Amino acid sequence: MNSLGEKPEVEEEVLSTASEKVNVAEKKVEKRKTEVTKTDKEDDHVEEEQHGDKVLVMPGDIIGTTEEFEAGANTYNVRGDIHSLATGFVMVNNKRRMISVKPTTSMPPTIKKGDILIGTVVNVRDSMALVQIEGIKGVVDRQFIKPGIAAIHVSNVKESYVKEMSKEFAVADVVKAKVINLENMRMTTSGNELGVMVSTCANCGSTLKKDDQVLKCPECGRTESRKISSDYGTGII
Questions:
Q1: What is the value of pTM for the model shown?
Q2: CATH number, residue 139
Q3: What is the pLDDT of residue 232?
Q4: pLDDT tens by residue, 199-223
Q5: DSSP state of 26
Q6: Are residues 94 and 122 in the same domain?
Q7: Can you say which residues are annotated as belonging to the binding site?
Q8: Residue set of the binding site for Zn(2+)
Q9: Cα(3)–Cα(6) distance, rounded to whole angstroms?
C-alpha cells in the first residue's frame, strides 16, 4: 500500500504523462495543417490552366460570367460579366472555379486616395481649379489607368482663407496635389510641398521665377501670386 507521502509523486507522474500526450497531439494537428496548406497550394498551381485557345485579351474584354466563375486576379465584375483588367492570357483554377488574367506586361499603376499627382491646370473658376492629370509621383514615367480631370476646390487650396482662385492658380500651371476623394476626383494643395511647380507669365509667356512668396517674370518684371510648392522650379516631384 502506498503511503500518504507517495500520492503527490503519483499525481505528478500522471499530470506529466497527460501533458506530454497533449503536446504530441498539438504537434500532430500543426503538422496536419501544414500538410493541408501545402497540398492546397500545390493543387492551385496544378489546376490553374490556360482557358481555351491561347487568345490575347485586352483591358475591358469580357472573359466570363459570375455564373461560371469567381473573378480572380486582374479582373473586375460588372453586372455579372467578368472583364479583364490587363493585357494578357485567361487562366482558370478548375478547383476553385476562379478565372483570372496573366498579364503579358507589368500592370500600370492606378490612382489611390493619398497619392500625389502631377497635372496641368486647364480651367480656373471662382470655386475651383480643374487639373488634367499627367502622372503619379514616383511613377510619372509610366502610363496609368483612367487619367482624366481632377478638381481642387477653393476650400482645399491651403489652410488659410482663399478669396480668389485666380490668385492661386492660372491656366497652364503645373501643379502637385494630393488625392482626397476618388469618387469626385478631388485634390488638395494644402501643405508646403504641394501647389504650383511651374508657371508662366501672363504678360509675355516666360517662365516665372520664385521671389520669396511671389513669382516674378525675369523678362518683363511682372509679379504674380500663386499657391506655390516648396519645390517650385526645382524639378523635384
A1: 0.56
A2: 2.40.50.140
A3: 94
A4: 999 999 899 999 988 999 999 999 9
A5: H
A6: no
A7: 201, 204, 217, 220
A8: 201, 204, 217, 220
A9: 5
